[in-house]
Amino acid sequence: MEYNSESEKMFRNLVETRESCRDYSDKVVSREDLVDIVNTGRLAPSACNSQPWKLIIVDGETAKRVPEHLQSPARPINHFSNNVSSFIVVCETRAVLMKGATCDSQYYAQMDIGIVAAHLVLVAASKGISTCIMGAIQETGIKQILNVPDDVKVRLVLAVGYARTDDLHTKSRKCFEEIVGINKF
Ligand SMILES: Cc1cc2nc3c(=O)[nH]c(=O)nc-3n(C[C@H](O)[C@H](O)[C@H](O)COP(=O)(O)O)c2cc1C
Predict the structure, then answer these.
(1) Buried b (16+ CB within 10 A) or exposed e, 43-76
(2) Which of 86, 101, 177, 182 is within CB 3.0–4.6 Å of 97 for a Cys-Cys bond?
């Protein structure tokens, strides 16, 4: 693949190598790095620039209380989070949209949450820090730990840490033709 610039090469490499990590080492991500990830990730675009999110950095003793709310007997996933020492909790707050921008067929805030989460994981990857986006969560428990107000939704929890190994898994994706249309569906 020919790249037009060094920045294209770096960014594409980041997109191609970012993956969900479910095996973390004991090395702890510093508060400074967590703040840096959030501070850059929050530059993500959002409908009407409404930024309908609150990004909560969770580390130290507080982080130890989170994993039990990321797993349940009904959903046997996210056990790996027991070994994660920091999280970024992505909450959805009320979006204030410009008059005329609302459409019945659209729900922008949840799209905005996905976009900011994508920015966060890519910024982390650029720093050599691994992540896993988790949507299968028990919201009530997380809200209690973090004092999240009733009218705010916890949408995603990002595990943030250092991968135990540098090995990358093979990306599994639908084939190009199935998900890309050119001039038609
Ligand atoms: C909205 C969303 C929710 C997700 N929830 C979980 C989750 O609860 N647990 C988990 O292990 N992975 C979760 N993932 C990660 C996906 O499984 C993963 O992104 C997908 O399989 C592609 O793999 P990759 O991220 O390694 O490229 C979630 C991803 C997204 C975008």
Answers:
(1) ebebbbebbbbebbbbbeeebeebbebbbeeeee
(2) 101
Identify whether the C-beta of residue 85 lies closer than 8 Å to the C-beta of residue 25. Answer: no
Query: Which CATH number does 6-179 carry?
Result: 3.40.109.10
Instruction: Assess contact for 92 and 155: CB atoms under 8 A.
Output: yes
Alpha-carbon distance 163 to 25, whole Å? Answer: 6
What global pTM score does this model have?
Answer: 0.97
| Other beta carbons less than 10 A from residue 12's beta carbon | 12
Tokens of 150: 């009733």
Query: Given ligand 1 and candidates 14, 19, 20, which is best to mutate, with the most ligand atoms within 8 Å of its CB?
Result: 20
The domain spans of the chain are: 6-179
What residue's CA is closest to ligand 1, atom 27?
A: 19
Kindly report the protein residue whose alpha carbon is nearest to atom 17 of ligand 1. Answer: 20
